[in-house]
Amino acid sequence: MDFDPWDPAFVADPYPAYRELRERGRVVWCEPTGQWLVPGYADVSALLRDRRLGRTYLHRFGHEEFGRTPPPPEHEPFHVLNANGLLDLEDPAHARVRRLVSRAFTPRTVDRLAPTVRRMARELVAGFVAGGGGDLLTEVAEPLPVAVIAELLGVPESDRGLLRPWSADICGMFELRPDEETAARAVAASVEFSAYLRGLIEERRKDPGEDLISALIAAHDEEGRLSEQEMISTCVLLLNAGHEATVNTTGNGWWALFREPEQLRGLRERPAEKLSTAVDELMRFDTPLQMFERWVLDEVEVGGTVIPRGAEMALLFGSANRDPERFENPDVLDLSRTDNPHLSFGAGIHYCLGAPLARLELAASFGAFLEDGVPPARLVREPRWRDGYVIRGLTELLVEF
Predict the structure, then answer these.
(1) Reading across the β-sheet that carries 398-400, which strands appear in turn?
(2) What letter does residue 110 receive in the DSSP assignment?
(3) Rounded Cα distance, 328 and 351, in Å
(4) Beta strands in 79-222 (DSSP E)
(5) How many domains does the chain have?
(6) Residue pLDDT, tens place only, 68-112
(7) Do the Cβ atoms of 136 and 128 come closer than 8 Å?
(8) CATH code for the domain in which residue 250 is found
(9) Number of Cβ within a 10 Å radius of residue 95
(10) If DSSP states are collapsed to H, E and C, what string results for 35-58?
């Protein structure tokens, strides 16, 4: 199978194509995407930490200077929002903003949230079971991380229904070659989301609380270490990243478990023993973030191939996580796997800030289904994959009890 991120069959199962890529070389030119594909674990891990690459090039070069065409002016609201978030900032701006935001994700903060997250997961699963099942994604996987990150930021409960549609529309722009309809939705969501947050920031400025938005306002107003745009972009990124990956890991993970009944049976029999390793193994086995793109700021060499400045490299997380050079029996789902340094959270300065919180949410969500008295869920029908490859997830996951 060829690497074809627009082919539904490839999106449904990209792993055979990844095996072929790894056999072809450490770096492979892909004409359709205009990228150098990097499929091996060691190279992906090293290049995530290599400062000759960057998530953006605009801190060093203009578009034309870098050999790239500027985005259309009508896309500006999306690009301004995206460029000022942690995921696309480079040092020194990245280090400054990350230092401020990381205060919300300390081990103490996550420990304090744990009882609330577990209670919310149990309540969602109890309601889901009482109703006889339905779409596990919309009724359990989505509400939990949205509620947690909204609680952390201080988004009122009445407004939380706005977040997922905005997030989905914005994340459409992270796919390869998004069309104009996708871009228009992302721009509209960027404008609406930004306006909503400006209003919320004004409210918190008048009546601050214990939430992250109030802390960011203090950094902006009192210390001048954060611009308003950085504040807005940071909140949007946390809300988007704070639930997109968790929702898709939950869906992809349950689909993997339904296909591996022996593994699921073992997890049901010993959830306390296996849950922590199971969460990381599910993230490794079918990661929701398949590709992480970086620009070549200064020439690099990979496996004897020189990659020039101005090129784009696509680091294939899904392939790296199945690399037999790093993982024993990589295509086997092994919920007891302990040697598991998967790259689903990234590495280097852009390592996922919310990784401890994501692990807590995933353990709470899967764990709630494994508690005594909760009957086993049965798959109603085989799910379909959403359009889109970079952020890969299911359209729905229908189950019954």
Answers:
(1) 133-135, 398-400, 378-379
(2) H
(3) 24
(4) 133-135
(5) 1
(6) 999 999 999 999 999 999 989 999 999 999 988 887 778 888 888
(7) yes
(8) 1.10.630.10
(9) 11
(10) EEEECCHHHHHHHHCCCCEECCCC
